Structure formats: structure tokens, C-alpha cells
């Protein structure tokens, strides 16, 4: 039976079709031993292996065997039951990961946008609970500056003028600061700052337009606007608060196979997760 390439399993009435090599990822597991008829829990009926276990949870077992990653839905809650299933099948590296629920559960991510207007300039400050999100957003936002005469600063074709990109201010890993609009420099000269937010290619100078594009970008990225308030009526500072459930980075099992050793014994757990 071990030389078959395609294996059909019926788990609690749910049918699964996979490769034998997938079930043999962990040679000491019951699923691998099943192919050699070494486990009486698995009955071979009409060419299909039958096991009286939870078929819905087994779909996550199969996903793990195919990818060697643990990636669960944001609304998943049966960690203990899935851990019990992993132990039943002899997949102890998976059971070990599931015992650490805090690594797998989605986290509530908070982001805050502060916006103020002073004369002809608009100021933005973005705070985020996840530094990775702030870093990604900082890569999307570019501020361009150029010194122009008072008669031409309001040209509708800023791309035709020599504009220089400016780095965003990053007071910490969790926030960024930038501004747009115009300011006097000397004589009839203005310093103009335009903002571009990828994937939108426009260079915007009006603060209200930049705010609208920024909020729309966050909403498209899965954030939900939860509140809008005025922080300082004197300074006209508006605050927009967002939140979203952030899926954790996938946890990966690395299996090092060496002569005379088993995949379970050599299993190593690695986690790639930023913004903690």
C-alpha cells in the first residue's frame, strides 16, 4: 500500500484526496504509518481509508501537511480541539504550535491619523500600534518639494516643475510626520510640498485632498474607521481612529531530514512576524 501515489481518505464522512508523499511528511505520524497498514484506527474500505474523526478539523491538518505552515481563519476558536486532533494523528510539531495560541490568534491593530491646517499648510501625523504597517505605509507616501514663484506655485501641472522627494519624518517606529501646501521663503518665492500616495500617481498639494486619499487608502487596506474627533479646537487638530484585525504571520515548520533520523525529531519551529 505504501507505493501508491494518490490516497483517498474519508474523515468523518468528508472525503480528501492527496499524495502519499504529503501524508509522509512526518514519517512517525499515524498518517504515514497508515500507508503501511500499521494502524488499526484507519480502515481501508473500497480503496479509501476511513477514520472516525472530525472532517472539518482535518482540513486544517491537510493544509499543514501540504504547506508546513499554520494559517487559520481570523474567526477560528477551536485551538484545543485542533491540538487534540494533531496529537491523535501524531503530528506533535503542529500540536506544539497550537498549544501557543497567542502566536496564532489575530490581534487588534489600531491606527490614528491626526490632521491640522495652518494658513496654507496641512500637517499629518500617523500613529500605529503595528510598526510593520507604519513602515509599509511610509513606503507608499512620498513628499515632493520645490521652490517656485508666487505666480506659478498653484499650477495644475506640478509634474512639469523640478520637484525633489523628501524623506518622511519618523519620530519612532510607530509613527510618521509629513506636510503639504505652501509656505513663503524669500521675496515672491514659495516652498511648495506635494504628497503622492501609491498606487495613486497624483501629486496633491491641497491638504483636504491628501486626507481624503489617505483615508481611502486605509479603508481599502482593511481598516475600519471607528471614530472622528477634534483633539484641539484652537489648533484645529482632527483625529481619525481606525482598527482592523491583523492576521499573524504564518508559523512554519522546517523539517530537516538526516540519515537515521525522523522528521518529527528534527522538526524546528520558525516564526516570521514583525511589528510586535
UniProtKB/TrEMBL annotation:
<feature type="domain" description="BTB">
    <location>
        <begin position="5"/>
        <end position="106"/>
    </location>
</feature>
<feature type="region of interest" description="Disordered">
    <location>
        <begin position="256"/>
        <end position="276"/>
    </location>
</feature>
<dbReference type="InterPro" id="IPR000210">
    <property type="entry name" value="BTB/POZ_dom"/>
</dbReference>
<dbReference type="GO" id="GO:0051260">
    <property type="term" value="P:protein homooligomerization"/>
</dbReference>
<dbReference type="InterPro" id="IPR011333">
    <property type="entry name" value="SKP1/BTB/POZ_sf"/>
</dbReference>
<dbReference type="InterPro" id="IPR003131">
    <property type="entry name" value="T1-type_BTB"/>
</dbReference>
<dbReference type="GO" id="GO:0005783">
    <property type="term" value="C:endoplasmic reticulum"/>
</dbReference>
<dbReference type="Pfam" id="PF02214">
    <property type="entry name" value="BTB_2"/>
</dbReference>
<protein>
    <recommendedName>
        <fullName>BTB domain-containing protein</fullName>
    </recommendedName>
</protein>
Amino acid at each position: 500500500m505504501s507505493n501508491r501515489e494518490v490516497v483517498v481518505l474519508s474523515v468523518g464522512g468528508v472525503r480528501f484526496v492527496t499524495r502519499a508523499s504529503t501524508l509522509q511528511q512526518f514519517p512517525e505520524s499515524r498518517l504515514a504509518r497508515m500507508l503501511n497498514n500499521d494502524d488499526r484506527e484507519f480502515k481501508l474500505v473500497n480503496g479509501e481509508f476511513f477514520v472516525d474523526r472530525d472532517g472539518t478539523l482535518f482540513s486544517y491538518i491537510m493544509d499543514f501537511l501540504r504547506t508546513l505552515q499554520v494559517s487559520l481563519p481570523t474567526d477560528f476558536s477551536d485551538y484545543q480541539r485542533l491540538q487534540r486532533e494533531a496529537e491523535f494523528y501524531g503530528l506533535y510539531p503542529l500540536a506544539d504550535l497550537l498549544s501557543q495560541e497567542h502566536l496564532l490568534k489575530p490581534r487588534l491593530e489600531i491606527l490614528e491619523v491626526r490632521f491640522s491646517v495652518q494658513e496654507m499648510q496641512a500637517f499629518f501625523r500617523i500613529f500605529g500600534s503595528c510598526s510593520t504597517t507604519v513602515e509599509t505605509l511610509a513606503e507608499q507616501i512620498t513628499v515632493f518639494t520645490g521652490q517656485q514663484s508666487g505666480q506659478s506655485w498653484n499650477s495644475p501641472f506640478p509634474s512639469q516643475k523640478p520637484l525633489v522627494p523628501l524623506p518622511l519624518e519618523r519620530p519612532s517606529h510607530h509613527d510618521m510626520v509629513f506636510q503639504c501646501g505652501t509656505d513663503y521663503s524669500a521675496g515672491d518665492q514659495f516652498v511648495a510640498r506635494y504628497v503622492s500616495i501609491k498606487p495613486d500617481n497624483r501629486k496633491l498639494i491641497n491638504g483636504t485632498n491628501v486626507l481624503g486619499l489617505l483615508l481611502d487608502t486605509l479603508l481599502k487596506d482593511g481598516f475600519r474607521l471607528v471614530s472622528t474627533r477634534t483633539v484641539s479646537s484652537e489648533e484645529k487638530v482632527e483625529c481619525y481612529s481606525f482598527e482592523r484585525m491583523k492576521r499573524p504571520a504564518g508559523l512554519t515548520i522546517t523539517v530537516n531530514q538526516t540519515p537515521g533520523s525522523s522528521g518529527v525529531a528534527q522538526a524546528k519551529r520558525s516564526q516570521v512576524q514583525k511589528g510586535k
